[in-house]
């Protein structure tokens, strides 16, 4: 069934914020101390989105280059000794390369978008300014397919209907194109979340017809090639959960590759992926500078291990240990390892485990800990372990003093983690060195309020001090930013300054 696009895909305008009165910020991200950031007039960095206010995705229409919490962040970090907090900004529009959208309404009038704030009413957002333009174009194809094939959108109150959600993820990794053209020619991996238990349940004909329709009209043989692949996820729960446990690859390339942090990374639709590919790449490049060459690194809340593996490749790390609760990320991790440069000679492991269970065991043996938790921040048990890092030191030393006192591992969660782990051993002989205890803690956060609490708590223990902090404009149009904070072990070192004179202290006593 041939389909027409109702409107051509949105033109792909340049993404940087342009100022008329002051020089424009460069196209590629620039990190500047906040006080010296050029200030373009607010309207040139405005959202200009027809869905603003009805859609809950964006909360701010003006000054997309300066999210409102920047002032709070600058003051917060200054209070804790970091006076050179920087903020990087990249694309202000078209930055979202990964979107999960609800599908509601009817087959003749499908609504594909986000919930209205505080409700379960879905707002259609065909011209979303945050989406990569090819997400909007793929949504348009989907809308036409739903109508022409009479696909029923999900009816939440009844639990009926066929299509519940769609996830759209854009890959900009196309080495056959010049680098400058890759982003705008991104291809979309579409996942249809179908309201049935599995692929041969009732209604599967329609699912296949919808997938074929997307492929015929947006696949490589179509006039407008924008679809990378089509997947299905099966979900019948009446809870507010987007994905079920069952995934099926239907059409197109199975593997989805992106290039960030200096490596090719594989991301299955079931694995966590950062929404803002370009800003994430900037963050990774900054992060790499804080990891000494040949470090041993533990990457907690690791997803598909993008951070850890990027460090393995760029910092020649001795070992990388990734810990992630979602077992689906393992496949992507293994595929990414398969494409690491041959020069990488790290000992690499990925553990399917809960970072909050027995957190000490994840901290011993590494000199750098990277934590990238969900928005709610650190699990309290991990926070306690980090605050009591001196116990890690003692534990590590006592185990090194008893090299032959190996005890059989019995803890069920550790055994399970070992079973589900991936292990790539370095070809180098293992150095017989004293067990490492973390000296650097790198905290990556997408939740500003939880980060502040966690940061205060870590600093109050005096086990860590804050050395550097950077912000990244991961979510322009919202009040959220991504934070990269670097902590060092030990109490804050005194900054060289004026010493109190002895005689003046004496004088005070005489008063
Ligand atoms: C913000 S994402 C970061 C993923 C990864 N660092 C990246 O940038 O691609 C947080 C990840 O933590 C995982 N996660 C959540 N709770 C966890 C826990 N208790 N233990 C281990 N991983 C957890 C989630 O599944 C998710 O993949």
Automatic annotation (TrEMBL):
Region (Disordered): 488-511
Residues involved in S-adenosyl-L-methionine binding: 274, 301, 324, 372
InterPro entries per UniProt: RNA_M5U_MTase, SAM-dependent_MTases_sf, U5_MeTrfase_fam
CDD domains: AdoMet_MTases
Alphabetical UniProt keywords: Methyltransferase, S-adenosyl-L-methionine, Transferase
MF terms (GO), sorted A to Z: RNA methyltransferase activity
Signal peptide positions (record): none
SUPFAM superfamilies: S-adenosyl-L-methionine-dependent methyltransferases
Similarity comment: family membership: Belongs to the class I-like SAM-binding methyltransferase superfamily. RNA M5U methyltransferase family.
Record-given protein name: Methyltransferase small domain-containing protein
Organism ancestry: Eukaryota, Viridiplantae, Streptophyta, Embryophyta, Tracheophyta
